Amino acid sequence: MTTHKNLIRLKAAVQEYDWGRTGSASLAARLGGNAIGHGFQIDEKKSYAEIWMGTHTNGPAHLFDDPSTSLLSLISTDPRFYLGETLVRKWSITTHIPYLFKVLSIEKALPLQAHPDKGLAEQLQQKDPSNFVDANHKPEIAVCIGDPLGKARIGDKDTAFTGFVGFRPLDEIKTFLQKVPELSHAIGDAMLVASFTQDPSTDLLKRIYGTLLKRGAEARGEVSSAITKLEERIKNGGKLSIPNGDELAQLVLKVNAQYPGDAGVLATTFFMNFAKLKKGEAIYIGADEVHAYLEGDIIECMAISDNVVNAAFDAPQSLAPQINTFVEMLTYTARPVSHWALPREPYPHSREGRTSQYNPPLEEFVVLGTLLDSKGAGTERLGAMGGPTIGIVMKGKARIAVSKGGEQLELDEGGVVFVAPGNDIEVELLEGRGSEGSEGEVWWSCFGA
């Protein structure tokens, strides 16, 4: 008879994308020795963007002590034990964990993107299965976990993450179209711009945004010329006579240095909200919502999917086939950035009060953050979850134990664990382990909390 384990150390997957931080500057790389293990070594010339913790086929987790066995194959041996009765009943056709848990370390802007809803994901997979390997939606949350950005910062001294999220209120976009002539030149349709400024609407926003993005792929030289003129005006001391003009000028220069002449420079700076998060703050991005993260370290969690449609900050030949779909899929929600904020709340099943929750309007997951220190707050106990839980030690050294079977693990930074449903979890900060021994930080994603 097979003996089931309630606490399993995982070997996560690392993803190298060119927007990731390079070498040991990347949090994903620094965690890799324990998250990936088995000979992982940092190459200082590579960009380490993400650590994946889940069962998605594009980056599946495996058992740390048996790397030939995937977490998905283990779950498939007894789905009710490893997923829980509720989840098995709810999604009986799959043995995947319903979420994908990640760490992202971002050096420059990700592609301007949106993730399809379930209906569109099914259509895209049928049409292009090589690029859309699953038929699921991908709403996601991002929780800022990094230190302040320092010299690269745009924002106040505590800003630790920046990104573009959703559309600005229509009146703000109207003002930018009126006061930034280079923006209208890049769009290349004076009548369309005039219609929007006279009577802003989401329908006209869709037309203007689509026109700009399509010209970015089909008439890149003209868009690039408009951006160059704007850049030269800013560098020569020309002020942008608009609200937050100095900050927007900095953004134009920063993003254009990363993607020179790309339509995304304008499509993000002047159409989208600029989110600035401090450590512990979070945002929620629903399906079909436009976004492009810019800089910082985050915990990210999403419904299990790797579907994405891009429209800027990538090679034009790659973008051109995607732009029509991108323009049609967006919600065009145009509100202040606070609309996308996700509150940090006390976790009701925390026995010691040292865990917060980030609970998006989804059924697939809740994200938890446990903070420990050696000054009388070195332990935490979490009530049993109804579904699978994955955790990663982000800081310090921790002992993690579960209520069934007396199982426990000691893990350094980067250690990743799977906890079977129905287990209370105890976390203890282990002291005397070097300079990081006085503080501990563990992040969790769970179903059925």
Automatic annotation (TrEMBL):
Gene Ontology MF: a single term: mannose-6-phosphate isomerase activity
Pfam family, one: PMI_typeI_cat
SUPFAM superfamilies the UniProt entry points to: RmlC-like cupins (SSF51182)
Biological process annotations from GO: carbohydrate metabolic process; GDP-mannose biosynthetic process
Positions with a binding annotation for Zn(2+): 113, 115, 140, 291
The protein's annotated pathway: Nucleotide-sugar biosynthesis; GDP-alpha-D-mannose biosynthesis; alpha-D-mannose 1-phosphate from D-fructose 6-phosphate: step 1/2
Cited InterPro entries: Man6P_Isoase-1 (IPR001250), Mannose-6-P_Isomerase (IPR016305), PMI_typeI_cat (IPR046457), PMI_typeI_hel (IPR046458), RmlC-like_jellyroll (IPR014710), RmlC_Cupin_sf (IPR011051)
Catalysed transformations (reactions): D-mannose 6-phosphate = D-fructose 6-phosphate
Domain Phosphomannose isomerase type I helical insertion: 198-270
Keyword terms, alphabetized: Isomerase, Metal-binding, Zinc
Keyword Signal among UniProt keywords: no
One GO CC term, this protein: cytosol
Isomerase among keywords: yes
Domain of life: Eukaryota
E.C. number: 5.3.1.8
Enzyme class name: isomerase
Cofactor note: Binds 1 zinc ion per subunit.
Family label: Belongs to the mannose-6-phosphate isomerase type 1 family.
Function text: Involved in the synthesis of the GDP-mannose and dolichol-phosphate-mannose required for a number of critical mannosyl transfer reactions.
NCBIfam families for this protein: manA
Stated name of the protein: Mannose-6-phosphate isomerase
